[in-house]
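Onboarding guide, step 5: your first structure request.
Type a short instruction followed by the sequence, for example:

Predict the 3D structure of this protein.
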Amino acid sequence: MPENAVNDTISKKDTIVLKKEPLDAVLQTKADYQRRDFQKKMVYLNKNAQVKYQDMQIDADYISIDEQKHLMYARGKQDSLGRIIEPVITTQAGKKYETTEFQYNTLTRQAIAFNARTEENEGVITANKTKKYNDSIFAMSRADYTTDDYYIKKKDTAADYFLRARYLKLVKTKNKSSIVSGPIQMYIEQVPTPLIMPFAILPFSSKRSAGILIPSFGERQDVGFFLNGLGYYQPIGEHFDLKILSDIYTKGSWNLRPEMNYIKKYRYSGNFSADIGTMVRGIKGLDDYGKTGTYRIAWRHTQDSKANPFLTFSASVDIVSTKFYNNTLNNNYILNQNVLNTQQNSTVTITKRFLKLPVTITGTASYSQNFATGLSDLRLPQMNVAINQFYLFKSKTGVRSGLLENLTVNTGINLSNFVQTNEGELFKAAMWDKLQTGVKNNIALGTNTTVAKYFTFSLGANIDNALTTKTINKFYDPIQNKVITETNKGISGYSTFSTTASIQTTLYGQANFKKGSAIEAIRHMMTPSIGFTYSPDFGGSGYGYFKNYYDANGALTPYSIFEGGIIGSPTTGLVGALGFNIGNNLEMKVKSKSDSTGVKKIKIFESLNLSGNYNFAAKDHPFSIITITGQSSFFNNKLSLNTSLSLDPYRIIYLPGQDAGIRTEEFGYFSVQGFNVQMSYPLSSEIFGEKTDYAKKYKTKGEVRNENYYFDDDNYAHFDQAWTLNVNANYAYTKSSASRTPTRLASVGLDGSLKLTPYWNINGSTHYDMVTQKLAYTRIGFARDQRSFTINFNWVPFGQYKVYDFFIGIKANILSDALKYKDRSFTQPNAPF
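The system replies with structure tokens like these:
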């Protein structure tokens, strides 16, 4: 062997090293029939084909693999006409995707799927074409999204509703996923609806998420077709969320409604809201054209009762323009009858309590608007210092007895600033000039004791002290031919007092009937009381609270210098009146098979009271108006009845040609001056029949268009057709000596609902004025509860506002923020914080 033979052996450098194939690039395949084309570098899998690659598994009827182009193609099972009858199922990262055809590039990891079905959280997406860019981003064309549970579980071949977008992007991250789309339209039962949104972001998360607010749509006679409540919802941090709503009308009216909610758990919660808009009526250039600006500002604040028991703050502020409800652009105010409001009140209150002091301090600011007069009452600020009731004397034995030991004192001081103004004067010099300031103190003393075992004797006294910064002076001006009222600035006040003494007892009586009779007994409880009230005549000249002026006829006319003021006026005329009150309660016992005792109590009158008084010090008409009030309920407390009657014991005569009457001193006529009766009765299907157990009565159960029914032997469908009807009636009669013609008010109100089918419901309310013989406010509503959404239709057919409103709401929780069918803001009980 030559010397260099050793060098000819295979060296380490010449060793053949096989390239290690990465594990994640290995394809695992199986099928009933497999074929490999080595020349074209193709693999064909037929019947029960399966490919596993990395974290992905493809199951299909046919799969081809192009090893040269790094492409996999899969197709579902076809019938004899070439239609796909079984889909391709692709599983990746625990998610299943169904497609008719599927193509995947193993090199770029991108995929294209046709007629893909993708389930995400509570919904499913079906798209004609889907392109997967990576594991996080999927682009889809002609895509439909639905949350219909029947369709998701393949109980139905078509969804009852879906949202369709021409282009849609599914973005997936580790913790959540979301859909982003361009214009998107709602379809119901394959029929397109006018609900089209310019874009949509549907976040699939258990947390609060931003999203489009779906509007209702309809038509109003005065302002045209509309979208009501179109907007956007945006959560802001942990403690805030924001909604911006808009109302748009085809005749040019518009309204913007921002609303911010806030909450701090176990501390407080509240919200700010506003309505700012422009009402356009008629056609520009014509006489009926009108353009009105409207606004409403509201604030609600509630403090948690556990936050601070010694300091509480609350606010209920609602300030609107004078003609806001006459020009409302938010149809919710029409449907919930806010447009009938004649007054709006706002209040802000802060209350301070003390651990060791028996004092409660309350500060209030209030604002009240009267839409009929256009005037507003402003009280700012108003403070009340109340001292808790206390006993003036201590008990010697520990058990209080006698008049002295039961003597209690209630007292407090009230400071108030008040002004009545119109909208244009608010917080201007004219308003401050009319502002009145007043301080009032009340001291109430009271005590009682038992006399002769059966009588309760009570004594009481009231002392009022008041100060104000403004009083008035009146005089008749013959040049202007009217009474002039001047305002005097300066501190002035008055003090008044009154005393009362009364005695009361309770009497019982019972009438028993024969054994076996339908009525076993009638029980009568009567509570009579008499009392004497004394109050001096504070109209005397010695007090200086009243003055006189001569009117146009030269008659001396008295007036109070505190008339119309913030602290009120003292009483005039000596009062030494004996008053009486007789309270009655009447009930009976009747036989009853439904009661376990065999006896049932029926209230004839829960209360029937007769009251009046006789003033010994009065120069004329010593007897007062006699008042009778009654309250009762019948039919297991369903029918509620309240009534009142006022009788004048003196004769009233009316002279020919005069409307006002003259109240004479002739006693004993007892003419009706007022009568009122109110009745309410909630009727329902349960009252008129026992509830049927359909499961026991009918053997067959089934569905008709997804509604559950029970079928009898003749195959007729049955279900519980529940209904309710609330009846409210009111009659009022008023007559006084000031007018010959009495005033009558009579109305009947109905409010009810009827279940047409298990998922169809009709509801409504109406009000009929029997005096004018006209229907007042009337609303009719229809509601349809579908599998995955609800339809609500409300219609006001006549009146000032003729409107119909149509709303579709999606039930799925996953869309409750995005489409806002339900308000899942954190101010609601099931908040995620």
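Each response can be followed by summary notes, for example: The first strand starts at residue 27 and ends at 30.
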